[in-house]
Design goal:
alpha/beta; Cobalt-precorrin-4 Transmethylase, domain 1; Methyltransferase, Cobalt-precorrin-4 Transmethylase, Domain 2; 2 domains; five-stranded parallel β-sheet; five-stranded mixed β-sheet; 7 helices; 10 strands; globular; S-adenosyl-L-methionine; methyltransferase; 4pyrrol_Mease; transferase; Precorrin-4 C(11)-methyltransferase
């Protein structure tokens, strides 16, 4: 058997990858976070599959389900919202599987920040304006941030910052980024990206906190702050430039 850590995407059921959907349809056990993974995806599971909502389970209970499936010889589709590579808590699960000698694979998915950018109809990297994207969060009730990864430090770069798990603390986000980005810096908040109840908020940095509170956004949202969000004057990319020598190696 194999445990498949599958990125279920940001919310819309049809944003799971073809590979992820194929594995889900063939797995006799499916573990999913009921609060984050769209219930429509569960319809892809084979008839009679064991479905386990992990929303209220701790790591040892989740691991026990994986071990049980292994003992029974069943493949497991372990659905995680977004993409497993960021803020997914797969590391501690994979560590326990390694220790037990249980095989697993990781299937990437559409991350929340990509769905948010799509909703905004924005490329996050713009030639001559910004070529760096920082994915981060803030320390609050969850795990503390490592030294040097606080917003005040990251903000000095001026790069586009994408914050996960921070909508509840938008006042703090604004206060820490204002000195580096300025009150007029383009800012956006996208909640429930790709879902029918998607919420998109745009405005300068000094106005976004009020919009977030008025809209009642407290979870399942990403905050984006950076000049590329409002870029209108920029040079065309070298990739499709008319004068580019497309026969030159490495160009």
């Amino acid at each position: 058997m194999t445990v498949y850590f599958i990125g279920a995407g940001p919310g819309a059921a049809d944003l799971i990858t073809v590979r992820g959907a194929r594995i889900l349809a063939a797995s006799r056990v499916c573990l999913y976070a009921g609060s984050l993974v769209p219930v429509e995806l569960l319809a892809e599971c084979p008839e009679g599959a064991r479905l386990v909502d992990t929303a209220d389970l701790d790591i040892e209970q989740i691991t026990a389900e994986l071990f049980r499936a292994h003992a029974e010889g069943h493949d497991v589709a372990r659905l995680h919202s977004g993409d497993p590579s960021v803020f997914s808590a797969v590391n501690e699960q994979m560590k326990r599987l390694d220790e037990a000698g249980i095989p697993y694979e990781v299937v990437p998915g559409v991350p929340a920040f990509a769905a948010a950018a799509a909703a905004l109809k924005r490329e996050l990297t713009v030639p001559t304006v910004g070529q760096t994207v920082i994915l981060t969060r803030i320390a609050q009730r969850a795990t503390a941030m490592p030294e040097g990864e606080d917003l005040a430090t990251l903000g000095r770069s001026g790069a586009l910052i994408v914050l996960h798990l921070a909508a509840r603390y938008v006042d703090r986000v604004v206060a820490e980024l204002l000195p580096h980005y300025g009150a007029d810096c383009p800012t956006a908040v996208v909640a429930m990206a790709s879902r029918p109840d998607e919420i998109i908020l745009r405005g300068p940095l000094d106005s976004i906190a009020g919009q977030v509170k008025e809209a009642g956004v407290i979870r399942t949202a990403v905050i984006m702050v950076g000049r590329t969000l409002g870029a209108e004057q920029f040079r065309d990319s070298h990739l499709y430039a008319v004068g580019r020598d497309r026969g030159a190696c490495g160009s």
